[in-house]
Amino acid sequence: MQYDDNGIFAKIIRKEIPANIVFESDNVLAFEDINPKAPVHILIVPKLPVATVNDFEPDHAAIIGELVLAARQIAKDKGIDEKGYRLVFNTLDDGGQEIYHVHLHLMGGRRMAWPPG
Ligand code: AMP
Protein backbone atom coordinates (compact mmCIF):
# COMPACT_ATOMS: atom_id res chain seq x y z
CA MET A 1 0.00 0.00 0.00
CA GLN A 2 1.17 3.51 -0.89
CA TYR A 3 2.49 5.44 2.14
CA ASP A 4 1.01 8.93 2.67
CA ASP A 5 3.67 11.32 3.90
CA ASN A 6 0.95 13.77 4.91
CA GLY A 7 -0.89 11.27 7.09
CA ILE A 8 -1.68 12.10 10.70
CA PHE A 9 0.90 9.78 12.24
CA ALA A 10 3.62 11.04 9.87
CA LYS A 11 2.83 14.53 11.17
CA ILE A 12 2.94 13.36 14.79
CA ILE A 13 6.35 11.74 14.15
CA ARG A 14 7.63 15.01 12.64
CA LYS A 15 6.11 16.87 15.66
CA GLU A 16 3.97 18.96 13.33
CA ILE A 17 0.87 18.12 15.33
CA PRO A 18 0.70 17.40 19.05
CA ALA A 19 0.33 14.04 20.76
CA ASN A 20 0.79 12.84 24.31
CA ILE A 21 4.09 11.05 23.76
CA VAL A 22 4.93 8.38 26.32
CA PHE A 23 8.04 6.83 24.73
CA GLU A 24 10.54 7.79 22.06
CA SER A 25 13.70 6.18 20.69
CA ASP A 26 15.64 6.54 17.43
CA ASN A 27 13.25 4.20 15.61
CA VAL A 28 10.02 4.22 17.59
CA LEU A 29 7.46 6.71 18.90
CA ALA A 30 4.56 5.90 21.24
CA PHE A 31 1.67 8.18 22.17
CA GLU A 32 -1.77 8.02 23.77
CA ASP A 33 -4.69 7.10 21.54
CA ILE A 34 -6.89 10.17 21.13
CA ASN A 35 -10.05 8.03 21.50
CA PRO A 36 -9.04 5.40 24.04
CA LYS A 37 -10.89 2.07 24.09
CA ALA A 38 -9.37 1.00 27.41
CA PRO A 39 -8.00 2.82 30.50
CA VAL A 40 -4.54 2.41 28.96
CA HIS A 41 -4.50 2.73 25.16
CA ILE A 42 -1.18 3.60 23.55
CA LEU A 43 -0.16 3.53 19.89
CA ILE A 44 3.40 2.43 19.14
CA VAL A 45 4.69 3.35 15.70
CA PRO A 46 7.93 2.86 13.82
CA LYS A 47 9.32 6.13 12.49
CA LEU A 48 9.75 4.27 9.17
CA PRO A 49 7.21 5.15 6.46
CA VAL A 50 5.37 1.79 6.40
CA ALA A 51 1.60 1.74 5.78
CA THR A 52 0.54 -1.74 6.95
CA VAL A 53 2.00 -4.96 8.32
CA ASN A 54 1.92 -6.23 4.72
CA ASP A 55 4.49 -3.58 3.81
CA PHE A 56 7.13 -4.61 6.32
CA GLU A 57 10.33 -5.95 4.72
CA PRO A 58 12.65 -8.61 6.12
CA ASP A 59 15.21 -5.94 7.02
CA HIS A 60 12.62 -4.28 9.28
CA ALA A 61 12.74 -7.26 11.62
CA ALA A 62 14.80 -5.48 14.28
CA ILE A 63 12.46 -2.49 14.32
CA ILE A 64 9.41 -4.75 14.52
CA GLY A 65 11.05 -6.24 17.59
CA GLU A 66 11.62 -2.77 19.01
CA LEU A 67 7.87 -2.09 18.79
CA VAL A 68 7.13 -5.07 21.04
CA LEU A 69 9.94 -4.22 23.44
CA ALA A 70 8.66 -0.63 23.64
CA ALA A 71 5.14 -1.94 24.33
CA ARG A 72 6.45 -4.14 27.12
CA GLN A 73 8.31 -1.21 28.68
CA ILE A 74 5.29 1.09 28.46
CA ALA A 75 3.05 -1.60 29.99
CA LYS A 76 5.47 -1.75 32.90
CA ASP A 77 5.62 2.05 33.20
CA LYS A 78 1.79 2.18 33.24
CA GLY A 79 1.60 -0.53 35.89
CA ILE A 80 -0.36 -3.05 33.79
CA ASP A 81 2.42 -5.53 33.08
CA GLU A 82 1.50 -7.92 35.86
CA LYS A 83 -2.28 -7.99 35.32
CA GLY A 84 -1.91 -8.19 31.55
CA TYR A 85 -2.63 -6.30 28.37
CA ARG A 86 -3.30 -6.74 24.67
CA LEU A 87 -1.12 -5.91 21.64
CA VAL A 88 -2.87 -5.55 18.26
CA PHE A 89 -1.91 -4.65 14.68
CA ASN A 90 -5.15 -3.91 12.82
CA THR A 91 -4.41 -4.60 9.17
CA LEU A 92 -6.40 -3.29 6.18
CA ASP A 93 -10.20 -3.16 6.01
CA ASP A 94 -11.16 -6.48 7.57
CA GLY A 95 -8.64 -5.88 10.34
CA GLY A 96 -10.23 -2.52 11.15
CA GLN A 97 -7.25 -0.37 10.14
CA GLU A 98 -8.18 3.29 9.78
CA ILE A 99 -4.77 4.97 9.74
CA TYR A 100 -2.26 3.82 7.16
CA HIS A 101 0.93 4.22 9.14
CA VAL A 102 1.54 0.85 10.75
CA HIS A 103 0.91 0.95 14.52
CA LEU A 104 0.79 -1.44 17.42
CA HIS A 105 -2.09 -0.90 19.87
CA LEU A 106 -1.25 -1.46 23.55
CA MET A 107 -4.46 -1.78 25.56
CA GLY A 108 -4.96 -2.62 29.19
CA GLY A 109 -6.27 -1.51 32.55
CA ARG A 110 -9.40 -3.64 32.16
CA ARG A 111 -10.20 -7.21 31.24
CA MET A 112 -10.28 -7.64 27.44
CA ALA A 113 -13.03 -9.66 25.78
CA TRP A 114 -12.24 -12.52 23.42
CA PRO A 115 -12.98 -12.86 20.57
CA PRO A 116 -12.86 -9.15 19.69
CA GLY A 117 -15.75 -7.79 17.64
P1 AMP B 1 -6.58 1.72 13.55
O1 AMP B 1 -8.07 1.61 13.45
O2 AMP B 1 -5.90 0.44 13.98
O3 AMP B 1 -5.99 2.31 12.30
O4 AMP B 1 -6.31 2.71 14.75
C1 AMP B 1 -6.18 4.08 14.59
C2 AMP B 1 -6.23 4.69 15.98
O5 AMP B 1 -5.69 5.99 15.90
C3 AMP B 1 -7.64 4.82 16.56
O6 AMP B 1 -7.70 4.08 17.78
C4 AMP B 1 -7.80 6.33 16.78
O7 AMP B 1 -8.49 6.64 17.96
C5 AMP B 1 -6.36 6.80 16.83
N1 AMP B 1 -6.10 8.18 16.44
C6 AMP B 1 -6.62 8.85 15.38
N2 AMP B 1 -6.12 10.09 15.31
C7 AMP B 1 -5.26 10.22 16.36
C8 AMP B 1 -4.43 11.27 16.84
N3 AMP B 1 -4.37 12.47 16.24
N4 AMP B 1 -3.69 11.05 17.94
C9 AMP B 1 -3.75 9.86 18.58
N5 AMP B 1 -4.50 8.82 18.17
C10 AMP B 1 -5.25 9.00 17.08
Protein described:
This protein is an alpha+beta fold and 117 residues long. The protein has one domain: HIT-like (HIT family, subunit A), CATH 3.30.428.10. It binds adenosine monophosphate (AMP). The site of adenosine monophosphate has 12 residues, from loops. Adenosine monophosphate binds next to loops.
Write the layout of secondary structure elements.
Blueprint: H1 8-13, E1 21-24, E2 28-32, E3 40-46, H2 61-77, E4 85-88, H3 92-95, E5 104-108
Antiparallel strand pairs: 1-2, 2-3, 3-5, 4-5
This protein binds adenosine monophosphate (AMP).
Adenosine monophosphate binds next to loops.
- What's the structural domain tally? 1
Question: How is the biggest beta sheet arranged?
Answer: 5 strands, antiparallel
CATH superfamily: HIT-like
Q: What is the CA–CA distance across the termini?
A: 25 Å
Task: List its salient traits.
single chain, HIT family, subunit A, 117 residues
Compact description:
Helices cover 23% and strands 21% of the residues. The protein contains three helices and five strands; from the N terminus they run αβββαβαβ.
